Amino acid sequence: MNGDSERDTGLGGAGGDDPVRNRDVWLIVPCYNEGTVIEEVLSAARGTFPNIVAVDDGSADGSAAAIHRSGAHLVRHPVNLGQGAAIQTGVEYARAQPGARYFVTFDADGQHQVKDVLAMLARVRSEPVDIVVGTRFGRPREAGDQVPLIKRIVLRTVVLLSPRTRRLGLTDAHNGLRVFNRRVADELNLRMNGMSHASEFVELMDTHGWRVAEQPVDILYTEYSMSKGQSLLNGINILSDGFVGKRLPR
Amino acid sequence: MIKALLLLAGAALVAFFLANRRKARAKAGVKIGFVLFVVFMVYAVIRPDDLTVVANSLGVQRGTDLVLYALVMGFAFVTVSTYVRFREQELRYARLARTIALQHALRPEDEADDRAMGPAPDDDDPLRR
């Protein structure tokens, strides 16, 4: 996909891409009206990760049936609740499964890549970190990068405005690709149902004192994922959620 | 000057009630405040001139202006507290839906029930048939 073979050497650690050795890993895939792509994404990921739970967040299309066909575990919200709620549901399902030790949040639209997950997993397994977050900005910009300019500016601004994000040394506040261990999964309690869960995740890292690391990842902006991307105005909703969050019950 | 003080006092009151909303004392405070508000308004309707006297003593020119300030403050308080209350409700509702979802989780080896696999109702317009 890109010519950078140096980063791929990180896969040599425990696990690798052998499905049998990734039995202790659970992929959590929130899904809302992704019926056209979800089966392909899940089937591809299942080649490496045998345990996948896809949370159908009350989709009005055939997503649920597609998830079941792909061989993933299916948890269905009876109504649409939002991506944050779906991730929380998926984590609660996965952490109740015997033998689950590592957890991955992975997008349903195919913008995340298995090779990045493997590199992040190797770090959580071998380094003293609780959670590894993907970043689109962790290295000098390359010709092959696909993050659109306006999106880069907005994401950078979000990081600059959030003292917490800077203190934790994060460069990309809203990356959906995360790999974490049992401790994080057990303590995770996302209360923002919608798109604010990324900020809430950062807040939880701070309050629980999880050891955080970042890993540069490649995001594939397909036409499909672009058409479903977050609108920039949504940033205002995320800011107001930050205010309400302090007043919600635990 | 006095207007700034009035506004500040109102804002502080709002912040106090929002921070302590779940405590019984703050709840009782809201009820007492509401009763006082109604009594005050009834009195103001009956004797508008007295209101102007009160307003003047606070440095506000007209009684109606004082009522307007009070209303704006009250409206802001209601807006914010309703918003927070809706969000709380949403969280409870999410937890209820999550419990149901986890109880009905489908493992890959399970047989899919065709009826249960159908599309969920369109949430953008729940009242549509």
Main sheet: strands, sense, barrel of chain B: none
Series of H and E elements of chain B: HHHH
Number of helices of chain A: 10
Give the class of chain A from helix and strand content and strand pairing: alpha/beta
Please report the two chains with the greatest interface, counting residues with C-beta closer than 8 angstroms to the partner's C-beta.
A-B, 35 and 30 residues
Question: Tags for this entry?
Answer:
heterodimer; A: 250 residues; alpha/beta; 14% strand; B: 129 residues; mainly alpha; 4 helices
Question: Gist?
Answer:
Chain A is of the alpha/beta class.
Write up what this structure looks like:
- The complex is a heterodimer of chains A (250) and B (129).
- By secondary structure, chain A is an alpha/beta fold.
- Chain A is 38% helix and 14% strand.
- A seven-stranded mixed β-sheet of chain A has the order 3-2-1-4-6-5-7, sandwiched between helices.
- Chain A is globular, with a radius of gyration of 17 Å.
- Chain A starts with 24 loop residues before the first strand and ends in a 5-residue tail after the last helix.
- Chain B contains four helices and no strands.
- The model of chain B has no long low-confidence stretch (mean pLDDT 79).
- The interface between A and B is medium-sized, with 35 and 30 residues.
